[in-house]
Write a structure and sequence with these properties.
With about 475 residues, the protein is an alpha/beta fold. It contains 16 helices and 13 strands. The radius of gyration is 29 Å and the shape is flat. The protein binds guanosine-5'-diphosphate. The site of guanosine-5'-diphosphate has 20 residues, from helix 9.
Length: about 475
């Protein structure tokens, strides 16, 4: 392990989010051999009636060890090893929220010999002590970062071992095949010859299961990173109104004046379980107005950075040369044409405009003023990013990029084993790729993992987790 991750030292961190005047409770967490000793030095129950039993909560005061001045009135939670998150002695000071109490308590813990925990170090210890496997550890980080209920659900599935269990089973199946082959290498004369069709069938079976898990990678990516959707279009076509109707909030300011959305307004929505960040841009158009131009330029780049562009036009005005110009700017991205203000049109005109607009991709008719067409829009967005099929594998899992990369390696290795068997190569060759697959599967659960991989995984965690 890298130096920062060496076990033994007692680590301390603020485990809750901290901000001035926010959060009624703030937690300082300690883990390690000195945790209880530090707690005993700092924490004083009224009347001195302290029972330092595990899994109990004590009420009392945290006092400065030298001056005896009260730093906070708090609760103390004790979890002795191994029945704790890290499998070490853990204590938590449940202080008042905000910044001062938790920071002062943390400082005292550090003065008494603890050291500040690295990001994810509590969870790393839980992993190193065998309390969690690597997929569960990663799920904890996902759960903390989840931006939609579906993302949280997928993280919980991982935490409950719904990825680790099938991966371990696949690895065991590969190990069994390896044992069969190796036995033939070592004791060729004593055993009946290998049943090749059976081995190939088993490898195909493993490959099939592996592919089903791998198919959840796209969903995982969408749930984790969400979608960035930019609303672009001429001023006054109803972009802000659309976003308003969509988010049913007053986040975007709606006004009759063109170009008042000078900057980018961001809203966070959830569409079909996927977190969606909507960027409402200033109307894209060439302008001499310096202030507006800054906004316009930003809009162009925002559209370029978006996963999906909603090009909004005014149904009453039809497809104008300016709309075409904007389309030229964004057409390298997936575009959905949103024909807004349809309430101003008669049915016949709607058909007419539809036939006139030759814009490729999907077209959605909306009336932001009447909150109409929003469902169609959401459906079109999910279809555009292929999120409609996300549940196809019927798994609530959502693997991450690291896991997907390892699974892809395992898959390629197993396919190579099949090819090697097909080519009648010697048994030694079969085992090489089989071992590769076993190694890759072991990396997912953490049975075979390098220090640098662990460093990379846990450094992405928040401090205190
Ligand atoms: P933006 O500049 O593209 O963001 O446009 P706004 O959202 O500020 O809307 C410009 C004007 O069009 C406002 O007066 C809105 O009330 C109006 N508007 C927006 N959407 C609709 C709609 O669907 N129907 C009608 N009739 N008016 C709309």
């Amino acid at each position: 392990m890298s130096e920062t991750f060496t076990q033994g030292a007692t680590i301390a961190a603020i485990a809750t989010a901290i901000a001035p005047q926010q959060g009624s409770i703030g937690i300082v967490r300690l883990s390690g051999e000195q945790a209880l000793e530090i707690a005993k030095t700092l924490f004083h129950a009224p009347g001195g009636r302290q029972v330092w039993e595990s899994h109990r909560i004590l009420y009392g005061y945290i006092r400065h060890p030298h001056t005896q001045q009260v730093v906070d009135e708090a609760l103390l939670l004790i979890m002795k090893a191994p029945r704790s998150y890290t499998c070490e002695d853990v204590v938590e000071f449940h202080c008042h929220g905000g910044i001062m109490p938790v920071q002062q308590v943390l400082q005292l813990c550090l003065e008494l010999g603890a050291r500040l925990a690295q990001p994810g170090e509590f969870t790393l210890r839980a992993f190193l002590n065998g309390r969690l496997d690597l997929t569960q550890a990663e799920s904890i980080s996902d759960l903390v970062g989840a931006q939609s209920p579906a993302a949280a659900q997928a993280a919980l599935a991982g935490l409950q071992g719904k990825l680790a269990t099938p991966i371990r089973q696949l690895r065991t199946a590969c190990l069994d095949v390896l044992a069969e082959i190796e036995a033939r290498i070592d004791f060729e004369e004593d055993l009946p010859p290998l049943n090749e069709p059976e081995i190939i069938a088993e490898i195909n079976h493993i490959l099939e299961k592996l592919s089903r898990i791998l198919a959840t990678a796209d969903r995982g990516e969408l749930l984790r990173t969400g979608l960035k959707v930019a609303i672009v279009g001429r001023p006054n076509v109803g972009k802000s109104s659309l976003l308003n109707a969509w988010s049913r909030s007053d986040r975007a300011i709606v006004t009759d004046l063109p170009g008042t959305t000078r900057d980018v307004v961001e809203s966070q929505l959830v569409v079909g379980g996927v977190p969606v960040q909507v960027l409402d841009t200033a109307g894209i158009r060439d302008t001499v107005d310096i202030v507006e131009k800054i906004g316009v330029e930003r809009s162009r780049s925002v559209a370029q950075a978006a996963d999906l562009v909603l090009l909004t036009i005014d149904a009453g005005a039809g497809w104008t040369p300016e709309d075409q110009e904007i389309y030229e700017q964004v057409k390298h991205r997936p575009v959905i044409l949103v024909i807004n203000k349809t309430d101003l049109l008669k049915a016949a005109e709607k058909t007419e405009i539809q036939s006139k607009i030759q814009n490729p991709g999907s077209k959605i008719f909306t009336s932001a003023a009447q909150s109409k067409g929003i469902e169609d829009l959401e459906k079109a967005i999910l279809e555009a990013v292929n999120a409609g099929n996300l549940q196809a594998a019927n798994l609530d899992l959502a693997i991450n990029q690291r896991q997907a990369a390892a699974l892809t390696r395992a898959k390629a290795a197993l396919e190579q084993v099949s090819a090697t068997i097909g080519n009648q190569l010697p048994l030694d060759f079969w085992t090489i790729d089989l071992r590769g697959a076993i190694q890759a599967l072991g990396e997912i659960t953490g049975e075979e993992v390098t220090e640098s991989v662990l460093d990379r995984i846990f450094s992405r965690f928040c401090i205190g987790k």
